[in-house]
Amino acid sequence: MLRPGNARWAAEKSLEAWRDGGVRGLVIKAVDFMEKRRVRAEATPPLPISPGVYRGAVVMLADVEPPQCWHYRVQQKREAFGAKGIPFVVVRPTSSAEVLSAVQLASLLIIYRQPMSMLLQDVIVEARRLRIPVVYEADDIVYRQDLVGANPNLATLPADLRKAVIAGAADYAEALAVCDGVISSTQPLADDMAAHLGSATGAARVGSAVIENGIDASMWSISRGIDHDLASGKIPRGKDGRVVIGYGSGSRAHDADLAVAAPALSRILAEHPNVQLRLFGPVAPPPTLIRFADRIERVPILPQGEYLWEFAHADIALAPLLDVEFNHFKSQVKYAEAGLVRLPLVASPTVYGNYIDDGRTGFIADGQAQWHEVLTRLVTDAELRARVGQVARADVARWDVAGPIADQAAAMLSAFGVKVAN
Question: Whole-model pTM?
Fold first, then answer.
């Protein structure tokens, strides 16, 4: 039976099924629920296996949305474990029978960015029966309702979507609380997630670990193609007199971040007619930039490879970030991507101050005067742009997925006391 604390969740999901598919949708949901209960009813007693004993593979329960999260946290993990000869299986939360079958082969179960659900409850019960450690993974602080609600970037979302995002944080928090350990992309996030684990999960705690976002084989391959196009002039960076400033966003929740640099960008566009702004993704231009609409190019969300190639057509990359607690847990992805395509990045000190060697591998700008000063230097000095982009390219190699990131993945298994086939 569902635990009493999940009655509200079950009612909400039933209502969603009714709204999405009417009677048919509700029946499908009910049949799936009964199938899972049948599987559990037929389960055998717990096996005499404890954490640390070899069983088979690392199994991850993950969905394909958002695409950038799937790329960095799922696909890269497959490559990292593969580099160490460690079996890694990904299963999507679409069929309880499929997920429960995959768990039978697990030495470790990773729950990636999943809210609490009936399927997840059953999976965790089965993992407990098999005495498999269950760890929760996230690359954003999606489980903190207080911080999600206080995030200024949500202010521009439709009211009903904003309300749903805030309310949904409670379901992520519930899923996190019943796990035995955590994995994240940064140490601050790992520490915060560990503090939100429940006091009693039914198994021994395994701790917390950091596996950073990295640069995988496909990204390196794309970057080599970009290098060729830069050398041949197919990507005419700065050669036609234009200077393009690029900013990428993967969702609508970055308007307030871009606004951090908007006053300085407005001055730059007014002072330098050859400067253009290229915005990737659904981010909205701040009002102060609307008068330069004819020099602002909008690029829709693109697949990773196409995005990197298009982004390489810029001359300068931006990573403005509001200094709010929600943002303090973010990773270095924008720096890694800019460095990969040899672009100098101008970023806020929030987060990026931990990664960028100011003036050498990129630039830190704190306040409008610094934003304007740094952007002016880069707009007027092509040699500086090229030099910093080159140094950044060498620096971001420290996040090679097949090397240092694979080492982090192996260290995580060792720290958690997990043995798998290799």
Answer: 0.84
